[in-house]
């Protein structure tokens, strides 16, 4: 059995394009592998708390010296990290907000990328002291954007602080294989949007089927299969 972590970050609960894509992916996956387990964490509906001074102090307190107050401060982070640890596949549906991550997704990232828990820090490593402690995960990132031209070579490539940011932090989630599918033109509607949306839907279904079928031969997914 493989565990999927299904994350949705759109603040829109209804009529959300990124939610539609992530739901289609998971539905197709389960058609191929009905015995697999899905943990659904709805970040848009229930955003994680922001980290705080107390949170940082608790993180840097060695585990054997943590007080009950420290443990309570880290409880949400512990829960979210436990979900991440179990997952071989992360299915992330997210909108672009203000050219970057929705705050709910950033709050989740800050809660799960945690020193001595999901990454280690050692200056003996020289200029790159951080190393992820998790490995072997696959990320499927399904995004929706109101404008267009955010892909490489597009007219708004330089304004895309969503996909490159996700690419960068995914390493610290233990992601070793990643797939990005995007819908654009939502704010323009019309044929260009319809075309972008239907291509993304088809690509999402095809990707779910391909990854589910290739599971047996995929060392990454197998390694994390629970
Ligand atoms: C608060 C907010 C900020 C947004 N910022 C941007 C933006 O910077 N660039 C863009 O292309 N679209 C932007 N949009 C449009 C969304 O990316 C678009 O509506 C997308 O479809 C939202 O995803 P969803 O359909 O899954 O909710 C924004 C929408 C909202 C509500």
Describe this structure in words.
It is a single chain. With 226 residues, the protein is an alpha/beta fold. The protein has a single domain, classed as Rossmann fold. It is 39% helix and 19% strand. The chain contains 8 helices and 7 strands; from the N terminus they run βαβαααβαβββαβαα. It has helices spanning 17-32, 53-59, 68-73, 75-86, 103-112, 163-170, 190-213, 219-224, and strands spanning 3-8, 37-42, 89-95, 119-121, 130-132, 137-144, 175-183. Strands 2-1-3-6-7 form a 5-stranded parallel beta sheet, sandwiched between helices. Helix 1 packs parallel to helix 7 (190-213). The termini are close together. The structure holds flavin mononucleotide. Flavin mononucleotide binds next to helix 1.
């Amino acid at each position: 059995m493989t565990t999927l972590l299904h994350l949705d970050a759109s603040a829109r609960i209804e009529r959300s394009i990124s939610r539609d894509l992530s739901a289609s992916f998971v539905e197709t996956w389960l058609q191929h592998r009905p015995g697999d387990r899905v943990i659904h964490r709805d970040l848009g509906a229930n955003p994680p708390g922001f980290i705080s001074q107390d949170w940082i102090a608790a993180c840097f307190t060695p585990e054997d010296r943590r007080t009950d107050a420290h443990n309570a401060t880290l409880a949400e982070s512990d829960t979210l990290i436990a979900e991440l640890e179990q997952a071989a596949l992360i299915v992330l549906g997210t909108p672009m907000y203000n050219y970057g991550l929705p705050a709910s997704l950033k709050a989740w990232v800050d809660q799960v990328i945690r020193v001595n828990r999901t990454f280690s820090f050692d200056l003996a490593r020289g200029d790159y002291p951080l190393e992820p402690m998790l490995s072997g995960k696959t990320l499927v990132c399904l995004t929706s954007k109101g404008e267009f031209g955010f892909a490489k070579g597009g007219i708004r490539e330089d304004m895309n602080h969503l996909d490159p940011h996700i690419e960068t932090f995914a390493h610290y989630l233990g992601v070793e294989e990643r797939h990005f599918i995007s819908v654009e033109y939502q704010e323009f509607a019309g044929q260009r949007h319809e075309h972008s949306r239907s291509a993304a839907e088809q690509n999402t279904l095809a990707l779910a089927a391909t990854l589910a079928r290739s599971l047996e031969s995929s060392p990454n997914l197998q390694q994390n299969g629970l």
